[in-house]
Structure formats: structure tokens, C-alpha cells
Amino acid sequence: MTHSTRISAKAAPVDAGTVLPDASDSPAAPIRQFVLSGPAADYDPRVTAIRGDLADIALAGRFFAPHYVAPQIHRVLGDGAMLRNAGASDAEAVSQLLPGEAFALLDSAGDWAWGYGGHDGYCGYLPLDALTGDAPAPTHVVHARRALVFAEPSIKTPMLAAYPMGARVTVLGTSECGKFWQLAEGWMSVRHAIALEGLGCDPVDRALQLVGAPYLWGGRGGEALDCSGLVQLVLALAGHNAPRDSDQQMAALGRALADDEPFERGDLVFFPGHVGIMMDAEMLIHANAHWMQVVAEPLADVIARFPETTPQPVLARKRIG
Fold this sequence. Notes:
Low-confidence stretches: 1-28
Number of strands: 27
Strand content: 25-35%
Structural class: mainly beta
Distance between the termini: 43 Å
Mean pLDDT: 90
Strand order of the largest sheet: 22-27-23-24-25-26
């Protein structure tokens, strides 16, 4: 199996993988041809998997690329990994993939993989050694700020790992006492993870658990977050799919509140380049670079920090249905 299969509009599949075993003994895939007509459409490069040399095969017929690639689904290992805008450790972080989350791998070069997150389609580069192609599908997601994994179903045994809020795990069974989930790595409290098909947490409760977590540009896990990462994370635990960045969230989520509608718990407030979630009618929970952490503070204080020259500090107020 190769990391990816490139398909040219006029050529047979070309091997793009360099790390997994060679696929030369596998039957050749059929040649597929695509027809493009009309002008090229505009697209958001953050969530459209296309580069100058290749694109996701799902885009064939919509955008031109020399090669189209069938993605290979991998899972993120260990502590997760920052998604970067280039294949280098000093490149800017654009998001974060958490342990157990899916990554659609389209290409690899050296130590880096290019593709997109399975949960939101956000494109970027991850270290190849942060990925595995043979992990089982996760069954549960961590909904505590941090979940510890023990060697045995007892809190008195050694801690083997710790997963942040949002990490996905595969539950193999339950301890005889009923207090622990069995994972391949060890044992986790049943209070710290919930089944993926049973998502429905209160997003405000989860946001309050994260108060004090440090601000991290690109972060979206329980250990460190940015503003839109916080909103995406807590909405996901409530069963709502949300885009990654605040402008995408403002365009896609909820309904706009009328000017005379008071805030309710869970409403979203959008500012220029920023977003937060309301704890009640007056208090906003948000990850921010002013305090360099997640805080709950009066919305009026947040608005007051914007320069007087800001024409519209609050761009939108949204309510999730």
C-alpha cells in the first residue's frame, strides 16, 4: 500500500508514497479521466485540498491539478500534533489534530505529510511520525479537561498516559467494577470519556472546565487553545460540527440574533478575528491573547478593549439551534 494514489487526467496512476511498503505487486487501478468546463471557481485554500502539483480526487471535475490523489485515512498518535502551513517544524501552526482524530493523507515528502483533518477538512502539514495507518476506529471522546490512563483499573496504579479534552479513544471493554474503560494503552475513568454516538454535553460547562488553560495559536485541545479552537471543541462535544476559524464559524453556525434579543447561555459572539461563547446574559468565555488564557469575563470589558477606531467591535451574535 502506498500513502496515496495520484491520478492524472491523461495518465495511469503514479505512486506518490515513500514510507509505506511498495505497491508494485498490486493490480493497476483503472485510468480515470475528468472534464473541466467553464471558469475556475473561487475556493477557500484552508479547506480545499489543492496544491500546484496535486489535489484531492474529490475535487476532480471542479478544479484542475496535474494529479488527483485518493486520500489515505490515518489516525493521530501520542499527544497529537500541530497542523502547519508548510512541512517544517518552525512553520506557522494553523490548527491542531488531537490524539485519535482522523487525518486524510494526500502526499508525503521527507518527514512530513500533507492532507487535511477528517473532522473539519482543514489543510496543512503534520509530522509523519505523528500518524498511523492501522489504528482502530475510535469509539469515545474525552470530555474532561484531561483524562488519565492507568496501568490497571485502579487510581493507585501507575499513570501511563494523559489525554486532553477532545482526544478520541477506542474502548475495548469495561472493568469488573464498572468504573473504568479498558483501552489498548490501559484504563481510563468512565467519567472522563463519552461514546461518540452519544454526544450532547453542555458546551458552556465544557468551556468553563477550560478556564485557565493557556492560549495557544492554533490550539484546539484541552491543554491549550485559541479562540475558535475553544468554540469548535466545545460545540463538537455538544454534537455540533463547526468549522475551524472564527470567520468560517460566523458564516456557518446558528442564526443571527435580532438587535433586541438578549443573550442566552451558549450564544456565540463574533468580533474582528475573535469569537467567544456566552456563559449567561453578561459573561463571555473565550481564549484570548490579552490574558493569554481562557477566561470568563464581562462581555462589556471585552468590547471596551477594542480601539475606538474599530467601526464595529461585535460583528455578529449567533444562537446554535
